[in-house]
User: What shape does this take?
Amino acid sequence: MNILMQSNPNYSVLIEKTCDIIYAQNFLSRTNMITKTASSSPQAALVALAKAISDMNLETKIDIGELFSKLLITSGKKEDTMEKKSMCESVKIASLEIKDTNFQVDVGKDFVQKDGKELIMLSVYAREINEGQSLIKRNYYYLTENEDDADNSFNEIVAKVNKIKRNYHSGRIISKVIFEDIKKILFGIISDIKFQEEDVIGTTLRRLP
Assistant: This one.
């Protein structure tokens, strides 16, 4: 091979051009994969791009490894920020009879700072719509790494309140039972952190058994 390249310069040029084509095709193939990956995972896309550049043995005036490390850190921060999604949902239980009470339960999920810690707070606020009376205000706190647990509790509360609504509208329960059933749901929620001043469900109304 070396003898051929020395005796025929054109052969050496041909080999170099062939290698360049192979490198280019490889890079384009990687770029296509990167494009498909970028929308779902920016970090994975950056890793793939770094690998493609590394395979091409490009000579640059900057440290490619350092550059992509910074980009990955920035991308990771952006992904973390995107994951912090607040949620809120309201369930209204309209009365079947004029004499019955209309209820509304608001459930929210937010990222908060409490006692110097970043936490996920689920808040539940139940009230009687007719008189505007507050029945229950309760907060539940989760560590940020347990966001899935917070989401599961959020969905559980909403689903069970909706079930109470269906039970009432189908005639399986009466209006007076709605408040007690909502309390049972809230007593069954277990969070990561409890604060003493919020450990007891607050209510502005006293209900006779």
Observations:
- Strands lie at 87-93, 103-114, 117-128, 133-143.
- Residues 204-209 have pLDDT under 50 and may be disordered.
